[in-house]
Design the sequence.
C-alpha cells in the first residue's frame, strides 16, 4: 500500500465473513480502518452485505448499524428467496454494485483494496488497472481449498493473505464475551 496515496476499501461482506470463519477469527472493524489509515489517505471504506432482516437466520442489522455509524459506507440489499429444484435458497448479489462503485471511484484513487476472493471481480481489477489504479486483493490461500480464485490473485498488483493480518485485525476474544 502506498504511503500517501488516495485509497478506498471495497469489502465483499459475505466473502469476508466466510474467509474469517474459515480462518477462525472475527474482524475488529475499528482496527481494520486504523490499519489502512496508518499508511494511506483512506478516502472511503465501502461494505457490501445482504440484509437478512425479516428472514429466518442471523440478523445482520447490528453489524450494518455499527459500520454505518463508525466510518463505513454500507450498501445492502434485502435477501430474496426462491425455489430452485424444490429447495428454498436465500440469495442476494451486490457484486454489480461493488464493481460499478469501484469503477466510478477509480479516477479519484491511487489504490483500491478489494476484500474478496471471488473470481468474478477479475475484469473489474483489470479495468481499473488500465486506468492506472493499483489493486490489492485481500483473501486467503491459508485454507484448503484456497478461498481466492487463482485468476483474481494473478491479476492483482498485490495479494495480501488475511491470515497474515490476523494479529492486526482480529477482534479481542474478551470483547466478544461482553
Sequence:
Amino acid at each position: 500500500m502506498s504511503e500517501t496515496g488516495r485509497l478506498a476499501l471495497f469489502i465483499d461482506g459475505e466473502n469476508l465473513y466466510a474467509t474469517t470463519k474459515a480462518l477462525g477469527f472475527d474482524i475488529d472493524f475499528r482496527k481494520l480502518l486504523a490499519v489502512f489509515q496508518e499508511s494511506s489517505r483512506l478516502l472511503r471504506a465501502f461494505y457490501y452485505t445482504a440484509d437478512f432482516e425479516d428472514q429466518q437466520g442471523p440478523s445482520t442489522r447490528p453489524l450494518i448499524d455499527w459500520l454505518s455509524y463508525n466510518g463505513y459506507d454500507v450498501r445492502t440489499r434485502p435477501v430474496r428467496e426462491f425455489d430452485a429444484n424444490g429447495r428454498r435458497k436465500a440469495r442476494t448479489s451486490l457484486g454489480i454494485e461493488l464493481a460499478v462503485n469501484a469503477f466510478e471511484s477509480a479516477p479519484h484513487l491511487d489504490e483500491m483494496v478489494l476484500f474478496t476472493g471471488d473470481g468474478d471481480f477479475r475484469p473489474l481489477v483489470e479495468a481499473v488497472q488500465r486506468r492506472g489504479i493499483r489493486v490489492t486483493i485481500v483473501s486467503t490461500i491459508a485454507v484448503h481449498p484456497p478461498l481466492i480464485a487463482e485468476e483474481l490473485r494473478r491479476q492483482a498488483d498485490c495479494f495480501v493473505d488475511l491470515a497474515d493480518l490476523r494479529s492486526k485485525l482480529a477482534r479481542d476474544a474478551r470483547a466478544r464475551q461482553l
